[in-house]
Amino acid sequence: MDVWRKASLAAVCMLALFAFVYRNDNVSRYIAGLKDNKEAASAAALSVEPDHRKQLLAEIQAEAEKRRVAPVDAVIDRVWKAIPGYNGLEVDVEKTLAATMERPGEEINYIYNEVQPKLMLDDLGPYPIYRGNPNKHMVGLMINVAWGNEYIGSILDTLAAAGAKATFFLDGSWLKGNPDVAAKIAEAGHELSNHAYSHPDMKALGRQAAYEQIAKTEALLKSTMNVDNKWFAPPSGSFNQATVQVAREQGLKTVLWTIDTIDWQKPSVDTVLRRVTTKLEPGALILMHPTAATAGSLRGIIASAKAKGLVAGTVSETLSSSRVPASVERK
Do both 42 and 80 map to the same domain? Predict the structure, then answer.
């Protein structure tokens, strides 16, 4: 009887062992199958991705050629003298591809780089500047300040309400007597530049006197306002080549204007608006002073520029070769 029980127990154990081995072998095969399927799927994905990337790259490269905008060189114009260049645009193929691969199924969002012209404003030498590049949809607001503070507050309020910046060309003697007002202009984010020291007739001055007129104001801008200036606007638009040259020696470019409001003659607001709006065009520099006529017409000038798709800004912004962002132009 003991022998029979022992034989039965051994048989049961053997059956259990066979069942365990069979079951685990199936499990192992199942797991191995899953692993094989996963590896096969990964291999298939890897084989597809290079093809997709290659096709997408070819599409972006082809479109990049169509979307390229050539830069425009700075030139010397017979009438307008030095005209700044304007940056071109090209698609950044690698960044566009990488961004698109991260968002499969979405439309391609092209990423651009600006391309500078071969000839920049600095390459042209000592010439006066009357306007910006006609391809740039901006106008420059230039306000020459030599006397009269009563309308500056109103002008600053109008600029702030319009979200626009201007360049204030400051007479040195005015700056010396009104550093607090100049500080308010600077605190509002506007550009401060050089308008000589005592509103002289620059073309009637000798070379040394002309140099000193610019240098004294430049020193005040630096010491009083901590300004690194780039521009010089001759009082009353009076200058000669020596004026341009001595300004250049001090690192400044001589700026005139495209449109003159003639606001110092105390015209009506309607007269100023007609003078400006009929001549508004891309790249125009608009000359103003802190007068009642300008205080009353400035809002309309900026609105008229906007209606023509032009952004009103500083002289530096307008004469820069940088492109106007499309998002800004559409506002």
Answer: no
214 and 100 together in one domain: no
- Distance separating alpha carbons of residues 250 and 253, to the nearest angstrom: 9
Number of domains in the chain: 3
Inside any domain, residue 248: yes
Cβ neighbour number for residue 205 with a 10 Å cutoff: 20
* Separation CA 116–CA 276 (nearest Å): 31
What is the C-alpha to C-alpha distance for residues 137 and 4, in angstroms, rounded to an integer?
A: 106
Contact 119, 74 (CB under 8 A): yes
> 74-94: string of b/e by CB count within 10 Å (b at 16+)?
bbeeeebbbbbbbbbebbeee
Tokens standing for 224? 């009083």
Q: Compute the distance between CA of residue 185 and CA of residue 142 in angstroms, rounded to an integer.
A: 13
**Residues with Cβ within 8 Å of residue 304, at least 6 apart in sequence:** 273, 276, 277, 280
pLDDT-above-90 percentage for the chain: 80
**Amino acid 35: pLDDT:** 52
| 78 lies in the same domain as 159 | no
Residues 310 and 209 in one domain: yes
List C-alpha distances in Å: 139 to 58, 78, 216: 40, 21, 29
**Contact by Cβ (8 Å): 293, 269:** yes
Q: Stretch 272-278: mean pLDDT, rounded?
A: 97
| Among 188, 191, 192, CA closest to 161 | 188
> HSE-up of 319 (CA within 13 Å, CB side)?
27
What is the pTM (predicted TM-score) of this model?
Answer: 0.83
Q: Any idea which residue has 């797991």 for tokens?
A: 31
pLDDT at 94: 95
Residue written as token pair 């972006």: 60
Tell whether the model's pLDDT for residue 328 goes beyond 90: no
Q: Residue 104: which domain range?
A: 67-115
| 3-state class (DSSP) for residue 77 | strand
Q: Are residues 314 and 240 in the same domain?
A: yes
Q: What is the model's pLDDT at position 7? A: 47
Select from 74, 187, 195 the least CA-distant residue to 142: 195
Assign 254 to helix, strand or coil. Answer: strand
Indicate the pLDDT class of residue 5, thresholds 50, 70 and 90. Answer: low
